[in-house]
Amino acid sequence: MKKKVLFFFKVSFALIALVVVVIATAYLWPTNTVEPPKSFEKTIIKNVNIVDVVTGKVVKNQFVLIENSRITKIDTTHITVTDDALLIDGSGQFLIPGLWNMHTHSNQHSEWLHHPLYIANGITGVRDMSGQLNEKDSYWVGSKERLQWNKDLENNIRVTPRYLLQSSYQMDGEKAIPEDAPSFFKLQNPSQVDSLLHFYKKEKVDFIKVYQQLSKETYKALAEKAPKYGLHLAGHKPMFLSLEEAVNLGQKSFEHGRIFMYECFPEADSLKNPTNWKQYFSKSKAKIVQQFDSVQGKALMRLMEQKKAYWTPTLQTLKFEANAHKENFTNNENLKYITKVRKQLWWKYDTNHNKEKNLESEGVSVSEQFFEASKKQVAMANKMGVPIMAGTDVTDSYVFAGFSLHNELYELTRSGLSNLEALQSATIVPAKYSNQISDYGTIDIGKKADLALLNKNPLENIQNSESIDGILLNGVYYNKEKLTELKAFTETAASSFHMNVKVFISLFNSPLIRVQFAD
Question: Which is an annotated GO molecular function term of this record (predicted)?
Fold first, then answer.
């Protein structure tokens, strides 16, 4: 008997040791990188049709000269330069500004899982809505990493989109912050606001990401003091004050498609109760949609237009919730770009939860009603002059880096925006929001050469934004073969055992992730 027990323990120990060795080896296994293309001092695009995203006109058969990373000449006649220049034949093609995704979440694995797909889909700029606290996180990235990525882009030593504005970690009150973090991150009272703003100013952050459960008093102090530090507020509208108050206090952008529905129904004040707003929302979604007050909604939209408050509806998140029970939606070919860890630990639960809710009701589900109502409100807001920005909320369930931005542009046109307005939401509008219109957003002399070369005109059909033949990023040309390579690179990385181990361990080790899931 003792021999059997001893044998059992030896075998068990050996198996455990083997598992530990395999996991440790996978975690430490070097990860391949993808190299950017060769850069040229001069690049010419000949005979290309330039899409003017200001007027909606197409200027035909233009020659564009790019020197290093900037456009230096646009002409109707042939541009002659030295033989070592790169020549791109744009005959019959359409040149647009590189697209921007104004709501993403990057992490320590974005170099392999997100960046190649952004560029392969013509997204040359992103606004990351994540951040860190006072210590480097094993999962989320902060301003230090993103600013280094930007430097590497300028030096052409890394495949990465441009990170346009730097975010703080999400400020959501005490429960969203690990216990051992400095107390000022918890924002338990307004007296901690200066310490928070001083910290993030030193971290070279551009805005404070505000979230849902900030107290009204603390939010007011943040809004009033942030401009003194050269910062602004962006993110969710905190639940415990009105949208009108948040707009008047100067929040610069509001995220997601529910912001007007939260405000414009008879019992809206019930959502501002700190103790039970989540429970009330869960049981009242149908009422929130069905009793929407369009007069009140238009008044708030008019206020946003007057105060120059931007809206990023991220319709992809509501689209997922509305369609989680439909196999033609969930059987997405782009799942090959997602790690098994994320699909199993995050997306599967999210999908099953929303699927169950949708199938509980007969006919059209409440989630489908929410999605359709949000699109109607996008149409209203656009007519009222609210500046709308395209964003997708990567890495939420069934939101795919790169690909989903084109779906967002399509849904914006389904919501009443013209093809031109949808294109503007990912080019000139976010460039203005970011105060970087002098460098980006349109195709003009002196601007950065972040450009997409399309085979079809997106002004005729917004889905033509997907007909990408080549990308110029900081003046460096990614041809069609390189773009195919980028997609294959991420597909291989996402399916590899060692990348899945790395993602799992980084999630497990992140105190920020643990707090988020606990909340």
Answer: hydrolase activity, acting on carbon-nitrogen (but not peptide) bonds
